[in-house]
Predict the structure.
Amino acid sequence: MSVSVLEIANLTGAVIDGNANINIEKPAKLEDADATSLCFFANPKYETQFNQTNAGAVIVPIDFKPSTPVNFTLLRHANPYFAFCVVLEHFFNPNIHKKGIEAGSFVSNDAVIGSDIYIGAGAYIDELATIGDNSSIYPQVFVGRGATIGQNCILYPGVKVYAGCHIGDNCIIHAGTVIGSDGFGFAPIGDVYAKIPQIGNVIIEDNVEIGSNCSVDRATMGSTIIRQGTKLDNLIQVAHNAEIGANTVIASQTGVSGSTKIGANCQIGGQVGFVGHISIADKTGIGAQSGVTKSIDQPGTNWIGSPASPIKDQFRSWAAFKNLPDLVKELKQLTKELEKLKENKG
């Protein structure tokens, strides 16, 4: 792929400061770039790399002033990282999606298939399933009975969507993820457990992206819900009847227990664990490896630790913990002195 700086500016709305006719052949990091590379610069801590780069063009903040003269073209934009992402998606995306239904796939006669779709070899589309226009179903994907996949979706190899589950428009689900597996519901009867039928489904709203090897369990009754715009990393478990609010981002290896409700616009680190039947307010931030054992009612707060507590409280506790050996030593010394005072008094 070769694209001119002018084409990039027209696509992103960036303002050109320099030669508009330079041809760009690849994106690159500042330190790896050559004269055919496009980079972006948004964080001041990388200014050294910016000053030393050999790039052909760099997307920079709209009011950025280089500290030294540069010999490459600047593309000024209000959000350089976003503009760079737009360029990657439009010109350099390695996932060129095919069209048509490949041999070796199975599509039920009772399924509803949209236009301009791709269904790869080994995919299985069950009866009464619906695939929306311009969606891509990669090899080895299973779409169960009555499941619906919206428009402009991508299901990468090995995704399994169980019966009755719903995926909205513009969703991306990466390889190996399972949507609609049974929730972990068992009733103790004496020393054994009886399986509770899981008769609900999963609803995934529009513009959601789910990483590889995640599990989103179907509800016991009703729906497990992932609201619009949410982004899940790889290796995440969402249990039955949980709900993830709109535009929330969750990092890898997090587990959300049954019936827990996470609000909108939350930011959740990796390896966070949520107990069941709690609620998390909108715009909550939770640090990596936290254990959330109770509801968080106040929006816009940050929590960390296990059990999780407000981040300022946790930092104070950690600071005190660092001093614990000295405090124990002082306590022992005071105890000895107190014993001596008792002996002298006696």
In short: The radius of gyration is 27 Å. The chain has two domains: 3-91, 100-312. DSSP finds five helices and 40 strands in the chain.
